[in-house]
Design goal:
The protein is of the alpha/beta class. The chain has 2 domains: 4-127, HUPs (Rossmann fold); 137-277, Rossmann fold (3-Layer(aba) Sandwich). Helix content is 40%, strand content 21%. The protein is built from 10 helices and 10 strands. The protein has helices at residues 16-29, 52-67, 80-88, 104-110, 113-120, 149-162, 180-187, 198-212, 226-237, 261-268, and strands at 4-9, 33-39, 71-77, 93-97, 125-127, 137-141, 165-172, 217-223, 241-246, 273-277. A 10-stranded mixed sheet has the order 3-2-1-4-5-10-9-6-7-8, with helices on both faces. α1 runs parallel beside α2 (52-67) and α9 packs parallel to α10. The longest helix is centred in the first third of the chain and has 16 residues, at 52-67. The model is unreliable at 247-259 (pLDDT under 50).
């Protein structure tokens, strides 16, 4: 079943690009929108005051109508970091988010909201710090173990509708363990599609899918720190969308010592980023 879009805003102006992007995406994929407004820290004395959500909702409704998309509006009280994951669990959604405008002191104490939301939300998340439209260039990170297939599938749909060019990126990190597959990848990092390795097979499969869909696609490989190399490629390639996947749940032991690559890159706000957890059928 095709997912709907759940777009969340707390009235902060930084969430507007995500609403713009969501309106475009709903029209592009022919899907419905639920716009969730979160009223935070609303005191009884301020119940009759003008709330920023009113202006955001008015602009959003005009935009949705202009784009010809079906939408519903919903308002809930509470902390956005709690309300959004709770609402996300109630339906089949792609969650569209933007920066929530938290004070720097709060970010220092609790971390950025997007990191917490990525941990709590199981559905695909489209984080939009800025709306880079039209969509012309998509970067899909391919790890070689198939964990990115959910994000890749959504990205291919977006690319087909917008005729965007796709780049498949694999980062080869520093490897301490000396085993055959790692040696093959390191020795052939500039022609990975020709290797009989998990990453070689994943890249060939993704290229075949893109070709069958009539899309332009190419492969790139970089060596070094995963986060640094992905960010460098995004900047150098001036991509409009970055797509990544992850197998790890929030309670996985690996989370205790491995960096959350997707969250670290999202926090930098280079471009919209689509993240989707791997789900084994």
């Amino acid at each position: 079943m095709k997912p709907d879009l759940l777009i969340a805003t707390n009235g902060f102006k930084g969430t507007w690009p995500s609403i713009e992007y969501g309106a475009w995406l709903a029209a592009t994929l022919d899907t419905k929108i639920t716009l969730l407004g979160v009223t935070e820290n609303l005191s009884p004395a301020a119940i009759d005051d003008h709330h920023p959500l009113e202006d955001v909702f008015a602009r959003a409704v005009a935009l949705f109508q202009k784009n010809g998309v079906d939408y519903t509006l919903e308002v809930q009280n509470g902390n956005a970091e709690d309300v959004i994951p709770r609402k996300a669990k109630q339906g089949n959604y792609i969650i569209v988010l933007g920066p929530l405008g938290r004070p720097q002191f709060r970010r220092m104490l609790t971390g950025r909201s997007i990191r917490h939301l990525m941990e709590e939300i199981e559905q695909p998340i489209l984080y939009v710090p800025e709306s880079k439209l039209p969509l012309k260039k998509i970067l899909i990170c391919i790890g070689g173990l198939g964990y990115e297939v959910t994000a890749e599938h959504i990205a291919m749909q977006m690319a087909m509708k917008s005729r965007a060019e796709i780049t498949l990126l694999h980062i080869i990190p520093q490897i301490d363990l000396n085993y055959p597959t790692a040696k093959t990848v390191s020795a052939n990092w500039q022609n990975l599609t020709e290797t009989d390795t998990p990453i070689g097979r994943s890249l060939r499969q993704a290229l075949e899918i893109a070709k069958n869909d009539g899309l332009t696609a190419n492969v790139k490989a970089r060596q070094g720190n995963v986060v640094e190399e992905i960010m460098a490629e995004v900047k150098e390639g001036n991509y409009d969308l970055l797509c990544m996947g992850s197998i790890y749940s929030t309670n996985a032991l690996r989370q205790l010592y491995a960096p959350n690559v997707t969250a670290e890159i999202a926090e930098d706000g280079l471009c919209p980023i689509l993240s989707a957890r791997f789900k084994r059928e």
